[in-house]
Amino acid sequence: EIVLLQSPGTLSLSPGERATLSCRTSQSVSSTQLAWYQQKPGQAPRLLIYGASGRPTDIPDRFSGSGSGTDFTLTITRLEPEDFAVYYCQLYGRSPPGFIFGQGTKLDIK
Amino acid sequence: EVQLVESGGGLVKPGGSLRLSCVASTVSFSNYAMNWVRQAPGKGLEWVSAVSGSGASTYYADSVKGRFTISRDNSKNTLFLEMNSLGADDTAVYYCAQDRDFYDSSGRYVGNAFDMWGPGTVVTVSA
Question: Which helix (H) or strand (E) holds A14?
Answer without folding.
Answer: none
